[in-house]
Amino acid sequence: MTTYQTFETERLILRPTSYEDAPFIFELLNTPGWLKYIGDRNVKSVKAAEEYIKSRIIPQFEKLGYGNYTVIRKTDGAKIGSCGLYDREGLSVVDIGFAFLPQFGNQGYAFEAASKLKEAASEYFGLQQICAITTKDNLASQKLLEKLGLRYNGTVTLPSDEEQLLLYQSGLNHI
């Protein structure tokens, strides 16, 4: 099995999501925030989470060398969220996204993890720009995207979805 890059920050480890993360992925994908702002992925068991990892996460790592990272707190090894770079249908550039368990919100973890992946996108993966999408009512996500240096760039509707999303974009060559 191929080993993919793991990243570290002062407080966090960002490790490529793998099958061992299935119980955590099951929990994360069923949090109220995920369901409200990202959508129901119909992952209703740990077994379904394993299938989600197999069909949605592993293939992108195999294709591009990057994807969804499980965010682990260094102090205690707790899996607290996910952050990733996604090749998403309907977007012309790679999308950065993040989601954290509710008890780990508002502690700077999302900014810390996303900042590291934004840096890695440019320096490690050679991406020239990234984008992000969020719902119109997810003000916390919008604020974080702006703090990361992404700027509002209109709206987009992804294939097989009806909701109009806000699109943020950033060039990476100035990092």
TrEMBL record:
**UniProt-listed Gene3D superfamilies:** 3.40.630.30
Q: Output the lineage of the source organism.
A: Bacteria, Pseudomonadati, Bacteroidota, Cytophagia, Cytophagales
InterPro entries found in the cross-reference section? Acyl_CoA_acyltransferase (IPR016181), GNAT_dom (IPR000182), N-acetyltransferase (IPR051531)
- SUPFAM superfamilies hit by this protein: Acyl-CoA N-acyltransferases (Nat) (SSF55729)
Q: Which GO terms describe its molecular function?
A: acyltransferase activity, transferring groups other than amino-acyl groups
Task: Specify the N-acetyltransferase domain's residue ranges.
Answer: 12-168
What is this protein's name?
GNAT family N-acetyltransferase
Keyword set, alphabetical order: Transferase
Database matches in Pfam families? Acetyltransf_3
What domain of life does the native source organism fall in?
Bacteria
Q: Does the keyword Transit peptide apply?
A: no
Key word Magnesium present in the record? no
